[in-house]
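G., the chain you wanted modeled:
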Amino acid sequence: MRHLMDITDLSVQELDELIALAEDIIADPEKYQDACKRKKLATLFFEPSTRTRLSFEAAMYELGGSVLGFSEAKSSSAAKGESVADTAKTISCYADIIAMRHPKEGAPYVASLNASVPVINAGDGGHNHPTQTLADLLTIKREKGRLDNLTVGFCGDLKFGRTVHSLIDALARYEGIKVVLISPAELKLPSYIKKDVLKAQGVPYVQTTDLESVMPDLDILYMTRVQRERFFNEEDYLRLKDSYILEPKKLLSAKDDLTIMHPLPRVNEISVAIDKDPRAAYFKQVLNGKYMRMALILKLLEEAKN
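Predicted structure as tokens:
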């Protein structure tokens, strides 16, 4: 049984194939409108979500399938103390594929060990968010025309930002990638990612606290919010939450073809004035996420059938 827990579960060839499939779905949606007829997706969301949960649901509906599930832990038997393992075994009796979001790192992996249908990690704590990365890769491909030879700046919460961790894992496997890490000292990228991914893959990177000083070098700027839910100390959150606010004046030195991305939701780290800038791609990411989840559902169900 094939699952998706981490973006590195997919080879570069498989990533490219999923992107090609998503682009074919975009070009000819009617071709896929009954591809998952009589199939059911279970969305098990133990943590709040708007885009990820609804895009999974929209993806399955547009493939002709149906959806069941819950959107918060207290509306499931987890509130009664049921284990993730038992939940996975139970839901496998009802659904053909599962998408799970959980605040605890590794919970979707535990589910995958106990489920008898494919399980997709829809975000686990501060660890991984592989389907957001699929959305990000499709966005980069459609905006830049390539996934190699790019300088990518990651700005904001790089410590807890699971979308950042997953995207770095994915891009590190493409040629000519350079990474710029922009964050407060307290929210730096974890050392294990620098060691096990960037250094291990030979990806050049720099760390800085100054966004404007590196702006002219960037092909992509990936903004993130400082996540209140990951902090144990409210004072630390309040002190760091406005570390970086992207405003039009800060883009004066940026490339004309810069791509501005954000996994959303944003709080105030990108001014709404940026929304009108043609370089803003974060709402395109939302739509691209639906198409990549459609492609992923098709791939996993096809492999399960085989």
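The first strand starts at residue 40 and ends at 45.

Shout if anything looks off.
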